[in-house]
Amino acid sequence: MDTSLTSALGRAIALWSQGKSIPMTLAAELMAEGYDIPSLERRHRK
């Protein structure tokens, strides 16, 4: 199992928490895993 900072979700949360956007490749990976990107971004973006 991936650790939180090496998983796609962990990388996205780390970027959002820094106020950055995630790259499209990461968004595509999260969508393939079934995540709702807009909801996650609203929750974790600073």
β-strand amount: under 5%
**DSSP helical segment count:** 3
Indicate the radius of gyration in whole angstroms.
10 Å
Coarse shape = globular
Distance between the termini: 27 Å
Write down how many β-strands occur, each being a DSSP E stretch of 2 or more residues. 0
- pLDDT below 50 for ≥5 consecutive residues: which ranges? none
Q: Helix/strand/pairing class, anyone? A: mainly alpha
Average pLDDT number = 90
Total discrete domains = 1
Characterize the main sheet: none
Helix content: 55-70%
Q: How do the SSEs run, as a string of H and E? A: HHH
Fold and architecture overview:
It is a single chain. With 46 residues, the chain is mainly alpha-helical. Helix content is 59%, strand content 0%. It is globular, with a radius of gyration of 10 Å.
Give the SSE layout.
Elements (H helix, E strand, L loop, with lengths): L7 H10 L6 H9 L4 H8 L2
Relevant terms:
mainly alpha, single chain, 46 residues
Summarize the structure.
With about 45 residues, the chain is mainly α.
